[in-house]
Design brief:
heterodimer; A: mainly alpha; MetI-like fold; B: mainly alpha
Chain lengths: 296, 324
Amino acid sequence: MTTIRPAWQERPRPATQGTKTGALTVILLVILFPLYTIVVTSFSTQASINQAGGMVIWPHGLSVAAYTDVASGGVVGRALLISLGITAVGTCFSMIITILAAYGMSRSGSFGHRTILWIMMITMFFNGGIIPLFLVVSALGGYDQYWALIAPSAVSVFNVIVMRSFFAGTAQDLIDSARIDGAGDWRILWKIVLPTSRAVTAVIALFYAVGYWNSWFNIMLFMPSDSSKWPLQMVLYDYLTQNSQMVSAAAGFQGAAPTLALQMAVVTITIIPVLIVYPFVQKHFTKGVLLGAVKG
Amino acid sequence: MTDTATVTVTAPAGADPPRRPRRRWRVRGRRDRALLVMTLPALVLLGVFGYAPMLGLVMAFQDYDLYDGLLHSPWVGLANFQQLFTDPGFWHAFWSTLMLFSVQLVLFFPVPIALAILLDSLLSRRLRSVIQAVVTLPHFFSFVLVVTIFNEVFGGAGVLDTFLRSHGIASPFDFMTNPGTFRFLVSSQLIWKEAGWSMIVYLAALAAISPALHEAAAVDGAGYWRRLRYITLPGLTGITVLLLILNLGYALTFGFEQMLIQLPAVGSGAAQVITTFSFENGIVAGNYSYGAAAGLFLGITSVVLILGANKIAHLFGEDGLYRK
């Protein structure tokens, strides 16, 4: 689908065109090349890695040994399952709370909704910081517990506000007529507001999911030492900073896959879920970024 | 730091006319019971993990002890702050924060604008959307992942090092661990990760410029550069000023994860910022009150910065983070 050049616009000179093409190629390469070499290395044989002297650019012989190793258990396989679990549970939990709070404040003129909104928004501007939060969660027994990786960051006030402004825009006529027919607020939310807000619900769910998948600092804070409970990001961090016998040694491998391939498999596995949801986010995210600007 | 910049939230005050008839609050409270119940889970979570820690900040004025708790720890007045403001480590972190922030801002800020102008000039929509998809992708990566990816390219056994060694050149310096170039490292990571994402806002601003302006200028004989200078750039001024101002609000709190991840590699001389200073003293060293004092300092200065930034945004006639 090519738009036709407007009549008033001069044709670019070949030099301009060349510069532009060059710039775009460089930009694409800068982003894609590192990902390419990581993926290729993760599929490489020891011989191929030796020949390259490290990261592989031109593969000579591919192997899936690294992935079968990961799948056969050990630290990485377990971390992957833990990460998937936290992301799934956390996203559901966050969505339920966000949808309820957003709808609860979305009916104009309802009792106290502005006060509640202000109470929530204050936490966007000021918070107690890391140390009091750490002590609160510890006092509740959250140290080394999975719920500590979910509950403290489960509500994003920003997401609540975005969703609220969408819900507020749901056709009031529809809601009024449902109310006349005797529907309460729970039923209106479930039967009218949610079905008409699928797009925004999907976008916010994806943002939450990406957030849970990527979260790392809360693990550092609440679960720094028990490596048997670590999600993937922490295993990756450990690999990065210990540089890192951990991934291969603790996984207890019998040396089927080269260490470097194994390490790059960890990186690849961290990227893959993002790549899977990315097309869905991408479809919506121009909206998503500008979403905030919608006047509520 | 760019992520937060695109957040424009409108204050709940004003605006919508009341649709439901206003009655006595008790009646309205009973009528809207279901709605109030719905907000409860969120309020409880924010109460426990948002407001309770705020109360916990009083420990900044105590010599907090884990076993005595908030109620029985001895009060020490401003002693923690006195110690903080005479601690060379704190001031080092403070100036590092400002320096890293300025370098990142200067290097990062023009990139998404240039990228948007470049992308906007493409005629093929398909090419545009492919490039946009690629450049926004890294926004969805975690900083752990981004630093790892940088490490595989620039690090000790990375692509660049391997390439240089195979051509018999010893790597001149290690970009990933060199404190002297750390500011450029974090800036390039930020650009790699966020430039594409930040670009989207500018693309929308460019799309809002009427083509008729360009056409009229072209008919009057203005070339590409003149149109860029007198039509395109002025069309971006509003959003640029707004984002620039809003970024200032995060001058002291930006990049916490990014710095914390790389602290072991480059050392605290270059990567220690106030947020990591608070974390290391408070949690890692177990000096809770001292860390909380640094945290409280950060919290207060950040609120002042954010409110101040919005004030400036309002002076420029923009909405800012909230409306006047």
